[in-house]
Amino acid sequence: MTIIRFIREGFDLQCKPGENLRELVIREKLQLYGLKGLLGNCNGAGQCSTCFISVEGGNKNSLSPLTLVEEEKLKNRPENWRLACQTLIKSSAVILTKPQSPPSNLDELKKISETQYEFTVEVKEIHLNTGKIAHGGFLSTIADTGMGTAAHSVAGDKRCVTINLDMKFISVGQLGDKLTGKVKILKKTKTLVFISCEILNSSDIVASASGTWKILQ
Description:
Elements: E1 2-6, E2 11-15, H1 21-27, H2 35-39, E3 52-58, H3 68-73, E4 81-83, E5 93-97, E6 110-111, E7 116-122, H4 136-154, E8 160-169, E9 178-188, E10 192-200, E11 205-215
Parallel strand pairs: 1-5
Antiparallel strand pairs: 1-2, 3-4, 3-5, 6-7, 7-9, 8-11, 9-10, 10-11
């Protein structure tokens, strides 16, 4: 049995040896691309360099060798990075999608009530922008992660995907800040979950968010 463990998404997926990693990720409706890839990609032709993954575990030969395309496109990238479109699965491995956007180190989401959830996260050096404050992309990531996890919970553990996410940046997060995310379920239908979130430091609201998640049947 060949198992691919996806760190960011938090689940294991059984597959067949020889499968293309990009095709597997797309088929399972996981989010492979960052913003650049979402705006436009080469559909697996190995030309756009947007389907990055990093190999975080498994045997040395759990994936196919680097292709010539990867040797060219990944020259200045970490040694464990691959292009999913160029990668064939040989045996079980541990994969991080979108390694260019490090995981948010979000603590476990806590259920406060049937409609309210909370999470905490510490602002670390990797989360800062050039102005040395919490990057807007980091704040968006933790809001999306916390709200999406809440959507997954109220949907009976069915997989949910973000349809839209609206962010408002109100103040700043500093290095070492312990941020608290307060998530509220506004409405749930058979196919959609509407959610809001406030991200706070010890004294201020840092950002607020609202969004809609689609429940995959």
